[in-house]
What we know:
The chain is an alpha/beta fold. Helices cover about 50% and strands about 15% of the residues. It is globular. Strand 9, helix 11 and strand 10 (about 265-270) form a beta-alpha-beta unit. It contains 19 helices and 13 strands. A 7-stranded parallel β-sheet has the order 3-2-1-4-5-6-7, with helices on both faces. The protein has 2 domains: about 1-185 and about 380-415, Glycogen Phosphorylase B (Rossmann fold, 3-Layer(aba) Sandwich), CATH 3.40.50.2000; about 190-375, Rossmann fold, CATH 3.40.50.2000. It has helices at about 5-15, 35-50, 60-65, 80, 85-105, 115-125, 150-155, 165-170, 190-200, 215-235, 250-260, 275-280, 290-295, 310-320, 325-330, 345-360, 360-375, 385-395, 400-415, and strands spanning about 25-30, 55-60, 70-75, 110-115, 135, 160, 180, 210, 240-245, 265-270, 285, 300-305, 340-345.
Amino acid sequence: MLADTSEVLxxxxxxxxxxxxxxxxxxxxxxxxxxxDAHAAxxxxxxxxxxxxxxIAAWGGPRMREAGAEMIGITAEDGAMGxxxxxxxxxxxxxRREVSEWSLANRVVLHVPVDSPAANFPVVKAIRPRGIRTVxxxxxxxxxxxxxxxxxxxRLTDLVLCLLPFEEQWFRDRGVQAAFIGHPVINRGFDxxxxxxxxxxxxxxxxxxxxxxxxxxxxxxxxxxxxVETFIELQGRHRGMTGVIIAANENLARLAVQLVPSMPNGxxxxxxxxxxxxxxxxxxxxxxxxxxxxxxxxGKPMVGLYRVSWLSYLVSKLVLRAPHRLLPNIIAGKxxxxxxxxxxxxxxAFADAADEFLKDSRRAAAxxxxxxxxxAPYSGHxxxxxxAALILRVLTKGTLSKDEIAEVLAGVRAAGPAxxx
Length: 421
């Protein structure tokens, strides 16, 4: 994976120089996680639809390639993010050097760093002095911690594209131009026939529990055992309970079996089909992060968690400033569903929180209604299309004013119907 990056770069520099014609406009994307790969793909697809003449190159993952990007390096697969400590630092340094060299040889006009500020900021810092414009896709969560980084962000961006509704004003109030574009997880329609077909293949029983341990191996290693222990605790309280572990791919499914070689009766590992599982379930137990928005989109009660050591938990109490850490609660501005993010607690605490929903249908219904109300700010947005239109405007004009951003977004909405969450 990452070991192939230098080879890919060498081949690309040798074979793609013919594409570097005078006047060519190259937009470069850099993503360092699978979630960044997923966020970038619809934007790349929309860019090529809106302006087929633009060249899209990327360090990223398979979804970006499928969307039409020329892949220069692979940095957003699960194995890449499995690196830790010095290995991760060395990877970022290597990619920074490669991007710097490649962007100089290929007339990059605009750079789109996708999420992962710790990895992307050094890349932006290396190439922005050449006059390369910068549009950040996914706002750094400086409202949660590290507000001191705002000065750096002001220097290193022309526009920040925000996925959470309150972020636009938060950044603007602090001198950073920003635009709320919706969220690709929330702003997509339901395929009712496919959901029904997927749900039919899942086990019968009641209550039905979906365990969502994340899309990266490190998330499974940190959380899956505690989730399974929570399932066992709940199963002792609810006879006939059934559940599924949703693995994002075959590799993670194998890892799940390795981590929990003796699965409890009634709990099954399935690959993919997250929407079908969420339509099927009565309750989700999930890690924090984007997957919590998948659950919220279906209006299902959830317990959000992310396990860390006691030392890491104590440090987080000093560093994290936001009152909520789970995305649905952050968007709602209050605790709609229980969150243990981060936590050093165990299955008993998680099971007690989940049981409140399983024992009280009115409480579960109230949480579902709050989650659906939380979706209101997303109505009418088209994230990929809006992001692409703003990127192309920055490409030609540079930093945009608030009125210019509003004009671009109004044009997108006037051009076609949007999907409501």
